[in-house]
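pipeline/complex-builder :: batch 7 item 3
reading input block
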Amino acid sequence: MALLSARQVTKYFGGLCAVDNLDLTVNEGEIFALIGPNGSGKTTFTNLATGMMAPTSGHIEFQGTIVSGQRPHVITQMGLVRTFQNLRIFSSLTVLEHVTLGNFCRTTTRVWSNILRTKQVREEEDRVRARAEEILDFVGLLDRKNWPARSLPYGQQRLLEIARALATDPKLIMLDEPAAGMTMQESNDLIHLIRAIRDRGITVFLIDHKMRLVMNVSERIAVLNFGRKIAEGTPKEIQENPDVIEAYLGKGRKTA
Amino acid sequence: MNNSKLRNTCLVGIFVLLALAEPLITSRFYKFVLALAVINVIMVTGLHVIFGLTGQIFMGMAGFWGIGSYILALATTKMGLGFWPALLLSSLGVGFMGLVLGIPTLRLKGYYLSITTIGFGEITRFILMNWSAVTGGVFGVFNIPRPNFGSFVLTNDVHFYYFSLALAALLAVIASVLEDSKYGTAFKGVRDDELAADAIGIDSTGIKVMAFMTCGLFVGIGAGLYSSLLTYISPEVFTLEESFRFVTMVLVGGIGFLPGAVIGAVVLTFLPEMLRFLQAWYLAIYGLIVLGIVIYQPGGIAGALQGFLERRRLARGEEKQYGTA
């Protein structure tokens, strides 16, 4: 069943066409990857789907509702969350606070009851904390929960962004280059983590350059080049597709 | 020691010191300045929420302060309300102003917001000055009553001081509880990275409007106390210079650390009065002192305190660590 579908999505920046008439469907429960050379429009598409930008034309549906053009926090509350290619860590918060804040949009207590610290508030706080700790354990950061997030090493900050996004209870998580800057070991662990996220019932939309990661973990892949979709299929089909090879490696010289 | 523990310890210490300081001050004038200082503490607690916690540079404090002062003054003298309902009205009124000002302006970021709020403060002052039919114009409002408990009226400045101090302590507790709640984390998240906050489902504009309203509710109480303490107010007090002074109080204290802002409020209420003997030189010296603090101690009083605790920990040979479980 289609969870996310893009219909003829186009995005212009001035005269530059960043995404060109893109049609895309992500099915529920799969690990889907969007790949393509630098500047091919992958991150722009993420920005369009999560409300950071509005498309020039076309629209994006999530669970049958049009999300493109909505405000970002509304889209996240509908169950579509993202992480950032350039890390966006809250510099003054601890690791645990990041994850509890991720759950903020699912909490219900009001300001006044929070000032009076009613029983409901205390129960909610316990619940949120327990859930945050479970998620930190899941990504392997539980022993760092009291650290200021800014003092974590780079690779762990990436994991923290994933944990923070998971805390919003998403149905679909968009990971924008989660392996960037990770060591070999860390990106190997990431493969397991991505599969485990899917096993929690969350559909994964992965954007990355690292072919080893993408080919290993994804079930279906779409390839962008200059904003246009040039191929879609299983990892095997993509690897053998001449257009993809050309986009990545350039055209072979014709021998006469 | 974690941050909220440090904050609570410092706050208790400061409020005890303020309570003990009153009898030690003999001059009637400085007793009056001390009462003003505590009123500024209340208002700066409000500013702490929007500026310190949520990171929005609000340069229109004089506007909030002026509106709150006039609401209490007019409600008691013209509408015949008692002190308590008038104080409530001034708190709610300025809180509402926070909402009115917040919704259109908080989509603006950084300096754009600052400049807009400067405009808000100045417009407020001009309205207070020129809408004579309601505000009494440049002549101001006279005979503003003091707080009363039944028939007991706080005409004595000492009584008024301890009453204000109790209110300031109560508001500091409320601000601290709010800071430790999920909303406090949301304020800081929006301050650190608005886009990331949006991306995890937080309505950052809504959070900022909420912080602005909270600021208004607090400032309204301080402002109401101000007109009651003076029993006379006029519009020329609520200047841009005063808005800057409130922002400076937070800067001197260290952004985001409530005890720092409280100390900043007390110091910056006394400093101009104590430097008054310098006459024309006073503004220059005052400016240099503030500049010195901002340049040599950019973390303010809070930064100095944290540096001190860190050095002491290192001197004891404890390793820098954040604990595990």
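note: Strands of chain A lie at 2-13, 16-27, 31-35, 57-62, 65-66, 80-82, 172-176, 203-207, 220-225, 228-233.
queue -> next item
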